[in-house]
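pasting 4-azaleucine resistance probable transporter AzlC for the record, 216 residues
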Amino acid sequence: MDEAFRRGLRLGLPFSLVAFLLSLSFGVLAVQAGFSPLQAIVMSAVVHAGSAQVAAVAIIAGGGGVVPGIAAGGLMNARFLAMGIALAPSLPGGPLSRGLQGQTVVDPSWVLANRGDGTFDRWQLFGSTVPQYVGWVSGTVVGAFAGDVVGDTDRFGLDAVFPTFFLALLLVELRDPRTRRVALAGAVIALALVPFAPPGIPILVAGIAALVGLRR
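structre below
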């Protein structure tokens, strides 16, 4: 246990810097979108999911409302259902215990804990998540309270962080021809709805359509 946890800590450290930079940008932009610093920090501490938080804040800031924002965040996190199903047999205890342990899953930690034979090292999972969680929450704190000092984030290129982040997530998935077709269909749906639908609805509908397309 101790060795696996320490190994996880070491492996997770490089990702903590990425988490800090992304969450710093999130903290600044969330406050500029109308969130209080406390709300932004609590969201990072409880949700700890960059893509979901960014999607929710982007839609709320665009006037889409809380419900579409939450729905978009949920769609962004839908991948954790499959990841959780794969991880569950490697976690001891009943459903509640496994559910609590599963809260430590983030994308890099899931990969780092994967033994490659269908099983996972749970202590390595826990260890690798710790520095990433610290980096994510601390970055949000700095960003949320430094928003007034930073001012216009466009000057530092922070406005490009989240589009780049989403593009990176998308590019990883586009290796598969079927996924490329689904992504293209989702983009067409979103673009077609933009002139007519309220803010946030195009991406929400496109996301639902993409999930349906990937399940077929």
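Residues 2-32 form the longest helix (31 residues).
Residues 2-152 form one domain.
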